Protein: Fasciclin domain-containing protein
Amino acid sequence: MKTLLVKTPIAVFLGILCLWFSSCSKSDSPYYDYKNDVQSFNGTTLEYLQAQPAGTFDSLLLVLDRLPDLKDSLNNSQVTLFAPVNLNFAAAMKYLNLERRQLGEPELSLSTVDPLQLDTLVARYIIRGVKTTDDYIPELDGLLLTSIAYDYPMHVRYVKLSASGFESGGASAVDFSNPFGSNINKDWITTRATTVNIKTTNGTINILSAIHSFGFGEFTDRMNPIEDDEDEN
Structure:
């Protein structure tokens, strides 16, 4: 009996050791089991947005109509788009107009907010060059990528999700962050794209989570500089 008790843990240890070596041999990457299932769309990035059902990208398309240079980039430049959906814009407008009501100011809409500020914010969601998750996987700490206009640095990091939404060994996702020029993660605002790698003829699209508020926390301050105006008077 003593011999059996001694041999059993040794056998278990050897079994675990074998499993560990076999798993390490599959790849040097911690994401060796990742499958790059790229969905393709036969058209430009802008045409993809236009082809989606009503209620998805209407707000983004409305905004792009006010920003012809950025709109053109989605048709004619090589880009990676982190696409905000209608709910992302709705959240930003809700907070903006809540503050305006408290100040006794008339409400604004996406058609009437400052176009220069809008251009600055929208540009951050359009990254120069075509990137897919294959570019992010080797970089465990993520990558700093440059926006199509103003050369603004945005941070992108690949993650894996379990069925319950926690980082694990399941579906692929991408964290998209505004670092605000800081190297300290707690200073960043991050959103997540769980629909990734949609390939178009001139780029890649990642669709942002519906809980994101467009502008990474800057929308209200940029579109509502009322207090600054009052201070000057």
User: Anything to note?
Assistant: The two ends are 92 Å apart (CA to CA). The mean pLDDT is 84. The longest strand covers residues 189-200.
